[in-house]
Write a structure and sequence with these properties.
single chain; about 160 residues; mainly alpha
Length: about 160
């Protein structure tokens, strides 16, 4: 019995350590993204690469903010699992926002590298057309995650 109680106590301590690390990481991500957005918007935004970096920062906020809120709620509740205070719907919305943010961040990071390549290789005209196409392409993560949300795939605990 003592062995089991020690194991439960150690698991709870590991869970809290992971939660605090999540809080620290998401807080630093939020601070960095917000500082980048504010400093970028404080000056005139003329360069397309600067606009892309702003969008990447917004996608970072989309990932870090829900993670930070849920991790703080987890510490406040003193619960061992999140199901004690979160409904499945809230979990699905959190999953939608975080997954969309991750997909957007990847898409816009690839778009930034493509923009830099096209700018150097072909000039401003071609790079600008590709930049406009990236806005249209950025709707894809929203559509994919909306379908996943509709089919109850997001925030699923199923392993199959």
């Amino acid at each position: 019995k003592q062995w089991y109680q020690r194991r439960v106590r150690d698991a709870h301590a590991d869970n809290l350590a992971t939660t605090y690390a999540t809080i620290a990481g998401s807080f630093l991500g939020l601070c960095g993204a917000i500082i980048l957005i504010v400093t970028s918007l404080a000056t005139p935004v003329r360069a397309m690469s600067k606009r892309i970096i702003i969008v990447i920062s917004i996608a970072d906020v989309m990932q870090a903010l829900p993670t930070f809120i849920v991790a703080c709620m987890h510490v406040e509740s003193h619960a061992t699992d999140l199901e004690k205070f979160m409904t499945m719907t809230l979990c699905k919305w959190q999953s939608y926002v975080i997954t969309t943010g991750a997909m957007l961040m990847f898409l816009w990071t690839v778009g930034l590298s493509q923009h830099m390549y096209l700018l150097v290789r072909f000039g401003v005209g071609v790079a600008y057309k590709a930049y406009l196409g990236l806005y249209v392409l950025s709707l894809v993560p929203f559509i994919i995650n909306a379908l996943a949300f509709a089919y109850n795939v997001l925030a699923s605990m199923r392993t199959t």
